[in-house]
């Protein structure tokens, strides 16, 4: 299997090939074309030219037709794509199937919105009109991560296309084959004008850095870590481009004493180990009311221990490998440091003994208990299967502990007390709060971060607005 660059309507070879590996076995799955600044520059030039023709930017019906045809072409490939996602990313097949289904649904959602970008017209004084036009922002550069490369590609590319932007996509090297396979039926459409969608891949980040720095890129959408997002914000500053940054998180789950601890512990365990803990919104800290701490310790340890580790294509698997062995070693070392310095280790995770998993990037989950929410493992995003359990006294203490973080991506509140659930949800400084659930994300519902979790929103109508500019046109026509 090979993935090539697609620039200005043509599939192109690159500067050699880079292998893509199955993180569960280390097996080579295929290769993607190497690229870098040269490909990024060519792609931006092509997109810039394409944007300046009215054929795309001013033709919402064409945009809708292209997106609907793309979704129709993907539909029969769902299962194949889900398998490829599991092979390249490692996540359990059921998670891949859910992701491919969600991505498809999101293309349809934005295909509908292509025909709904209204402005406004006002008579500001007798015979004087101010008209507000919602216009596509221009060329959009999209840097896509590897952890959910289906949904996270679509939630940036689909609103950019719906708005009428021309685009350059740079997938993560770890999941380049999957991203190229999802985009192929879009790129091959005759109705898609050349240069409107470009794709290049690279193992380094010179091409991505070009997207950030180029004055020809008007909007830059990045999903990744807060450290890289900060660097991007600095490097983009001289061009004043619009930024959409979806960054790291440290999700808290606040569990009140009226909740059914034994029933929710398996849900919290699943929320913590989704994509092996490599999801920005994964549960990281469980804050439980002090009277239920001991019960939660036992229930969560048991729930995490019960999750089978294995290859994502094995139907029994609930936790697959991390994205690669480098990530396993880095994240594993940080989890070990957390275990060495916490108040109590409840479940000691690490590299599994199982010889059958020896070639993969596996880590078994860890659970620790700690009192001080200032500890590095309560503050830092550790992108793997580590869950920290803390206790709180009352509502105010729960909210203060949960808000004691630089992040603000997501949280969940677990209680049967309806008024308390809403009160606490409103007090949390997070872009998303779930009540008696976790990790529920929808095409229709905006997601994004407060504070260091990012800028702007993806999903929903607001994501489309992030790829537009608002123009005021004034005209005095007099009165009859
Ligand atoms: P990362 O920050 O390491 O990003 C890697 C990507 O950044 C690569 O594609 C690389 O090409 C690019 N890059 C690196 N340096 C660059 C530079 N100077 N200029 C431009 N691009 C550059 O993140 P990761 O490890 O790939 O992803 C994991 C992170 O993503 C976690 O922090 C996670 O929370 C976050 N994430 C956030 C969301 C969200 O919706 N908020 C969703 C998924 C993942």
Can you describe what's shown?
- The structure is a single chain.
- The protein is of the alpha/beta class and 480 residues long.
- The protein folds into two domains: 2-247 and 449-473, Aldehyde Dehydrogenase, Chain A, domain 1, CATH 3.40.605; 251-435, 3-Layer(aba) Sandwich (Aldehyde Dehydrogenase, Chain A, domain 2), CATH 3.40.309.
- The chain has 16 helices and 21 strands.
- The chain has helices at 37-51, 54-57, 60-74, 78-89, 93-113, 151-163, 176-187, 206-213, 226-236, 261-273, 293-305, 325-341, 376-379, 395-402, 418-427, 460-466; strands at 2-3, 5-7, 10-12, 17-21, 28-33, 120-125, 128-136, 139-143, 166-170, 197-199, 219-223, 242-246, 251-255, 283-289, 344-347, 366-369, 386-392, 410-414, 432-435, 454-455, 468-476.
- The protein has a seven-stranded mixed sheet with strand order 15-16-17-14-13-18-19, with helices on both faces. Strands 10-9-8-11-12-20 form a six-stranded mixed sheet, with helices on both faces.
- Helix 3 (60-74) packs antiparallel against helix 5 and helix 3 crosses helix 7.
- The longest helix is centred in the first third of the chain and has 21 residues, at 93-113.
- The model has no long low-confidence stretch (mean pLDDT 98).
- Bound molecules: nicotinamide-adenine-dinucleotide (NAD).
- Residues 17-473 form the Aldehyde dehydrogenase domain.
- Keywords: Oxidoreductase.
- This is Aldehyde dehydrogenase.
- InterPro entries: Ald_DH/histidinol_DH, Ald_DH_C, Ald_DH_N, Aldehyde_DH_dom.
């Amino acid at each position: 299997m090979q993935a090539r660059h697609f620039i200005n309507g043509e599939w192109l070879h690159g500067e050699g090939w880079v292998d893509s590996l199955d993180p569960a076995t280390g097996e080579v799955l295929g290769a993607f074309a190497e690229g870098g600044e040269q490909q990024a520059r060519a792609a931006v030039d092509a997109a810039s030219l394409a944007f300046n023709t009215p054929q795309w930017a001013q033709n919402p019906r064409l945009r809708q037709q292209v997106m609907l045809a793309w979704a129709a072409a993907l539909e029969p490939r769902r299962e194949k794509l889900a398998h490829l996602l599991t092979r390249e990313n490692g996540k359990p097949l059921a998670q891949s199937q859910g992701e491919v289904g969600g991505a498809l649904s999101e293309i349809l959602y934005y295909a509908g919105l292509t025909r709904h970008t209204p402005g406004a017209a006002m008579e500001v004084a007798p015979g004087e009109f101010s008209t507000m036009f919602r216009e596509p922002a221009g060329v959009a550069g999209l840097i896509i991560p590897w952890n959910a490369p289906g949904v996270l590609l679509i939630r940036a590319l689909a609103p950019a296309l719906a708005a009428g932007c021309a685009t350059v996509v740079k997938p993560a090297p770890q999941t380049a084959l999957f991203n190229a396979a999802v985009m192929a039926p879009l790129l091959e459409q005759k109705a898609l004008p050349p240069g409107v969608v470009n794709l290049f891949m690279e193992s380094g980040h010179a091409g991505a850095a070009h997207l950030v720095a180029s004055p020809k890129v008007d909007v830059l959408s990045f999903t990744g870590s807060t450290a890289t997002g900060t660097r991007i914000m600095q490097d983009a500053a001289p061009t004043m481009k619009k930024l959409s940054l979806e960054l790291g998180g440290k999700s808290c789950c606040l569990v009140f004493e009226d909740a059914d601890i034994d029933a929710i512990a398996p849900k919290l365990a699943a929320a913590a180990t989704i994509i092996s803990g490599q999801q920005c919104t994964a549960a990281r800290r469980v804050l439980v009311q002090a009277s239920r701490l001991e019960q939660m310790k036992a229930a969560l340890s048991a729930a995490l221990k019960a999750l089978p580790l294995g290859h994502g294509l094995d139907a029994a698997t609930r936790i697959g490998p991390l994205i690669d062995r480098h990530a396993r070693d880095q994240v594993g070392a940080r989890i070990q440091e957390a275990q060495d310095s916490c108040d109590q280790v409840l479940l000691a995770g690490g590299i599994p003994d199982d010889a059958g998993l020896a070639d993969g990037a596996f880590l078994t989950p860890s659970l620790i208990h700690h009192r001080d929410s200032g500890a590095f493992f309560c503050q830092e995003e550790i992108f793997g299967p580590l869950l920290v359990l803390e206790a709180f006294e009352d509502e105010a203490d729960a909210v203060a502990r949960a808000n004691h973080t630089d992040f603000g991506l997501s949280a969940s509140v677990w209680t049967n007390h309806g008024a308390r659930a809403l009160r606490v949800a409103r007090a949390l400084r997070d872009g998303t709060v779930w009540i008696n659930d976790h990790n529920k994300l929808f095409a229709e519902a905006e997601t994004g971060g407060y504070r260091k979790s990012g800028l702007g929103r993806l999903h929903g109508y607001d994501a489309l607005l992030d790829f537009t500019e608002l123009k005021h046109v004034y005209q005095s026509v007099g009165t009859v």
